[in-house]
Each structure stands twice: as structure tokens, then as C-alpha cells.
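To assess whether ligand presence alters the predicted conformation, the chain was also submitted together with manganese (II) ion. Input:
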Amino acid sequence: MTDAALALDARAAVLATIDAQERFLLVTHEHPDGDALGSLIAMQALLRALRKDSVMVIAPDDFPLPNEYRFLSLDGLVTGPPSDLAERTVMFLDCGNLDRNPLAALHDGKTLVNIDHHHDNTRFGTVNYVVEDASCTAEIVWDLLHQTGVELTTGIAEALYVGLVTDTGRFSYENTTPRSHLMAAELIGAGVDVAAIYRRIYEEIPQAKLALLCRALQSLKVFTDDGVASAVLTISDFAETGAEDSYSEGVIDHLRALTGVKVAILIREVTANGRGVQRKVSLRATDNEIDVSAIARLYGGGGHRRAAGFTSELSASALIDAIRAQV
Ligand code: AMP
Ligand code: MN
Ligand code: MN
């Protein structure tokens, strides 16, 4: 079968599962981003419009959600597996592999529907609907909305738009296609207030976020020979600026934007689950020459060709050296 035929087959399997099952549990990756949250909310609305029982679950560690997404309404959200978990079909949205979801209780023994757009998705589901050329998972949900005939309300359109605008880097990344803009047109036609959402996501920056960016830029190193730029944020950078974890979102875009940079690296220290200091590494590439998801996979992570990440216990300088060697 061709890729297109396989995808249609997978879509039919998702639609058949939605049709056949009555109760769903929707989940996404840890530290949910705009696409994760937008896809959850839109899918929840889709299922409820079809009179299905649906709840979303996000782990307690993922709260507070990033400031920019707090305006989204998460009606029907729980923070742990519900008591009737065994009777629910678990639907993963925007989650490339099972390790990226912290709720292990959800991972086996049930029907798992995996709806995603990461090219390195491990196809962990019973049903795997992975559309690599979709700009965002929200775009796949938008298509399912058409397939099921569910009405595109302003609320659904807003949720989908948040996924679309954030995963395409405000329609600037190479995943932005004619289809992404057609989707935007339809969502705006359904009542999305573009300027209001833009302001809410990108222009209500807490002062501590700017202070954290300042710290990151003070640590900037540019290796002109290999076209690598790096920045490091320590636990004290977060503590002293009063920044939340999610305030580092967007910092790496400044490194990638530097002239001559092929790969940008942001290393953030985190202390999670009593495991001592770990480092979350974000990688961005500026062109298709270097696939940063391949570097991330060497360290147990993954992602897209131009945006990937992993977690490590190595020191920041060891990580930068190792990544430069790969580049
Ligand atoms: P981030 O740098 O955290 O914004 O992540 C960029 C992209 O890399 C995300 O969209 C994910 O697809 C991917 N990613 C980040 N961390 C991991 C990980 N630990 N495992 C797999 N993929 C990851
Ligand atoms: Mn995501
Ligand atoms: Mn996504």
C-alpha cells in the first residue's frame, strides 16, 4: 500500500473506534504545549458532540500549565487515571512515544489510539494514525471533525487555532503548508479572534520571563566554526528571577535566529521526582542538513527534524561538546 492509502486506512480505523466505543480518556505528552492542549480540547469537544463520554487527563506534575495557555478551558480534566479506566479507550494526541506520557497506568492492556504528527512516532498504539506531513496534531483533529460531521464551533476553532499557530511558529516553520493556511481560514471564519489569541499567547509575558531570557543570553556561546549556539539555564537562574519552568519556552528561538547558526542548544537544569539534577536539552536546526531528532534519539529523546529534545544527567559542558561532535 502507498503511504496515502495506509493513512486513509488508519483514519478509517480511528473513525471506527470512535463509532464503536462509548468511553474515552484523552492524554498527551508531558509538559503539554499549545498543540497538545488544543488537540485535547478539540477532540474532547468532538467526542462529546457525538454523545460519547470523554475525559482528559494531565499529570499533576504538569501544573501549573504555561501561562500562555491558561486561558484555555479544560472542562472535564482530571489529574489521574479515573476509576473506570479499564472501560475506557485511551487516545493519545501529539505524543510520539509512551515514555513521553508520565501516567504509566494508561500504557497497556487497553485499546490505545495514537493520533500524532511526529515522524519518529513509535507506533505504540492498537490503532496508529500518524500523519507526518500534518503541521500539527490539531490539523489531524480538524480533519476528523470534517469526517464525523461535527460542527466547528468557535470554541473548537480556538483550540485548534492554538495548536496550529504554536506548532507552525506563527506560520513561519517549514511545516506551514497551503493546508495549514486553509485550516486557518476556516477557523477564522468560525469566529477565531486572531489578534486576541496572538496577544494572549505571545504578548502577555510575565516580567520574570524576560528576566530569565536575559540570564540565558548572558550564558550565550557561539561556536562559529561549527555553526552551533548554546545557552544554559541553571536552577538558580529560575529561582533568582522567580521564573516558572515553562518561562524558558521561546528562549531557544533567539539562538536559532542568530546569523550563521545551524544548530541551537538550550540546556535547562531541572530537579524532578527526587532524581537530583537533570538537564533538559532542546535542539533546533535551521535547515534540513542536520536532523536534530537523530541526535536527540542517541540520548533517548526524539522529536522533529528541526526541533527535538532529550533529558540527560551529563554536565552542560559535556552535553555541548557531545552535540557539537555530532553536528
Ligand atoms: P522542546 O525543545 O522541549 O520544545 O521540544 C521540541 C520537540 O522535541 C518537541 O516537539 C518534541 O517533539 C521533542 N521532544 C522533546 N523532548 C523529548 C523527549 N524527551 N523525547 C522525545 N521527544 C522529545
Ligand atoms: Mn507538542
Ligand atoms: Mn505537535
